[in-house]
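Below is how a single chain appears once it has passed through the pipeline. First comes the sequence as given, then the structure the pipeline wrote out for it. We keep one example in the README because the format questions we get most often are answered faster by looking than by reading.
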Amino acid sequence: MEANGNNNNGNNNNDNLFLQTLIEEPKAKKIKKKHDRCVFQSVQFALAIVRNPFPASPHFGKWLAVNETKGRGWWVPGGCVERGETFQQTCHRECLEEANMQIQLKGVLKVDHSVSGDVCRMRVIYYCEPTSVQEANNFKTMADAESLEARWVSINELLVLASGNPGLRGRELLNWATYLENNGHVMPLDMFGEEGELQPIGSRSAPLPQQASQQQQQQAQQQQVQQQQAQAQREAQQQAQREARREAQQQAQQRAQREAQQQAQRE
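Resulting structure:
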């Protein structure tokens, strides 16, 4: 028993000496690794998913498609960001060049970013609407260097274009139109901006296209009710005028009869 106790004391002493050695040893300095920053070559694009929100337009609720040049097929207004431009400026310019349309940016649908080696590709996809019903109805119909034509299409009409020639250049419009018509979410414009910008106080998500469409439909229904009421008033006025003329004619006939009777009595 004593031998075991001495062995244990020796082991404890050795452990204490080892711990003391660790404490007294100077801490190793952390070596900072140097990482070279990679400078990427960035290629940037802006795309516009444009919907017609105006009930007064014959193309209400449809989506803006552009027939690209060189047989590339139907696509969305969009293109490469030029030197000195912002993504939003590019979106406005491409809609004007390819569809002859002034648009208003309503929100951001997606930011795509992919890297291949030292080259990165970035796309910002916006949800947009024409600035007025006049702009919505004044889309491009004559070919030029930017595009062959623009057209408002429903999803079913877009599927018909996809099965024809030249077909679709890409599925962006078909995918996003389907997404938005199924109550898809639109992010606010200020979620994507310049570095250092603060989120505005009280900012909220952009209104969903479905909600905007329902509001426009309600307005259209109210206008229809007002038109029906106005038509009913006009018809009531016309009926009152007809009755007044009929009564006047009856009175005239009665006077004529009385005069004839008086004349007969005098004779």
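Strands lie at 41-50, 63-68, 73-75, 78-80, 103-116, 119-130, 149-153.

See the next section for the split statistics.
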